[in-house]
Structure formats: structure tokens, C-alpha cells
Amino acid sequence: MIDNSIRISSYFDNELSPEERIEFEKDLAVDKKLQNELNVYKRLSNQLVITKEDKKFAEQIKIALLAKRRKSIWRRRISYIFMPVVGLSLLFIVINSSLVKPSSIITSDDILNEYSIALTEFAE
To answer: What is the DSSP string of 46-81?
Structure first.
């Protein structure tokens, strides 16, 4: 006698010959245990289909999360580079501005004086 689980699996997957299928359906009509086993197999099979869909969904979520993580890693890396550069630039500006002597600052009056001197020299 063939094991019921093999017969059920073959029946469910349409792998039985027409004669074997008819014989299985006759046995199924009278055997309550076989009917229960077929119902359990159907439920388990449906759960496996859902599980495959869940795996696809979980894989899509995983891909999306990894993409988001990659973006955030690059943002962090950029900020780790950018912030020190900005800080050093500001420090450089502050140090340079404190090193500039007030006498070396050119005002608009100085420019006008130089311009008027140049004009008088050119006119002579």
C-alpha cells in the first residue's frame, strides 16, 4: 500500500494518472482520515504560498531599508568631512582677520584720494 502522504501530494499536484486519480477519489469519498489528511495538506500548502509571498515582501522591505541605510551612511560620511572643513575655514578667517593691521585696511576715502592724485598727475 502506498503511503497516504505521497498519494495526497501526488493528487494535490496533479501527478496521478487518470486511473490512479479515480481510485484516490473513491478512497477519499469513504475514508474520513484521508479527507482530514487532504484538508491538512491543503492548509499547509496555502500557508507555504503565503510564506513565499511574505518572503518576497520581506525581501523588498530589506532592499528598501538597505538603500535608505546606504544614503544615511553617505550623509554621515559627508557631514564628518564637511563639518571639520567648515570649522577650519571659519577658524582660518578669524585668525586672518585678527592678523590684519588696521593701517592696511583700505577705505573708500583712500581710493578717492589715490584716484584724485592720479588724475592731477595725468592732467599735468
So the answer is: HHHHHHHHHHHHHHHHHHHHHHHHHHHHHHHHHHHH
CB–CB of 9/41 below 8 Å?
yes
Q: What's the pLDDT tens digit per position in 78-106?
A: 777 777 887 888 887 777 766 656 566 66
Question: Is residue 79 in a domain?
Answer: yes
Is residue 48 situated within a structural domain?
Answer: yes
What is the tens place of the pLDDT at every residue in 31-52? 899 888 888 888 887 776 666 6
- The single-letter DSSP state of residue 103 is G
Domain range spanning residue 80?
31-123
- Residue 71 counted as domain residue: yes
